[in-house]
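Structure request: Glycosyltransferase involved in cell wall bisynthesis, Fontimonas thermophila.
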Amino acid sequence: MKILHVETGMHLYGGAQQVAYLLDGLARRKIDNILVCPPGAAIGQRFADSPVKVVEIPCSGDLDLGFVMRLRRSIAREHPQLVHLHSRRGADVLGGFAAHLAGVPAVLSRRVDNPEIGWWARWKYRRYARVICISEGIAAVLRREGVEPERIRVVRSVVDARAWIAPAPQAELRAVFGIPAGRLIAGVVAQLIERKGHKVLFQALARMAADERPFVICFGQGPQRRQLDADIARLGLAEDVRFAGFRDDLPRWMGALDLLVHPAYMEGLGVSLLQAAAAGVPIIATRVGGIPEAVRDGENGLLVAPGNVEALLAALRRLIGDAPLRARLSAGGRALIAREFSIDAMVEGNLAVYRELVEP
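Returned structure:
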């Protein structure tokens, strides 16, 4: 079986990391893989010396109409049996057109739960032989918009638990990030964009007494950084929040956190939540999208309503003040990942979809 994969993201963020897990697993199963990505993309560098053939094609986004013909030519050269489109950045609609012009069936992975206009969704998703949703929450959105259920499959995102079980000592975390001794440490692992809900967390922190607040490290980068800096200064949180940027050594630090907070307004599943669970970090997150599939309320974390400052504040106080609860949620997270979120299960799930189309 020969599959051509398209991932147009430049960084090895959550979605691209899932593609990397999939390509590794497919290669171990002797599947012939071609990876199409932009020049200089991190995932292309990741597979530069591997059985996966890397083809670099420029793609500047959803309006880069030239990408259709560039990708079509690559498909014609490589003769895959199937095209798997992984990224939204120019790869979904434009990639679907390219596969159609080349006469090759296309599969699309959908990783976000944002709604689309019904007529557009019905037209768009007919371009794909299958749509693989990374959570039941995303699949439910598509069904509500009128996408045919027989076109939809659910294969959850996963995490390589081995990378998250040996963190640095917390004393090292405190030294590197300048965190005072004695304070609990909360992390946020998310792009600095509005829908991740950083502002809700900062408003909750501002309502806490100075001696009860956790110290918060925000891992990630994004266009809201300047605005969030201003919010922190206005709320008097300059000594309580640290922005750490994008870190490729995140596995060293995740397990040294006392808790992870993810106050998102929308989320397909939340790979950072799976990473935290694998590291044994208790989680506070919102009850939106696919998050309840990654965070089970009372099992590995606490769920609150999105945008509800009071509910988030109550959850923070509860978790901060209850060490036995944190320990119970920590153990529950590791058990959940081992039980339901293995890489092999994800690879086999995608492979089953391929076989529906290639080996009917």
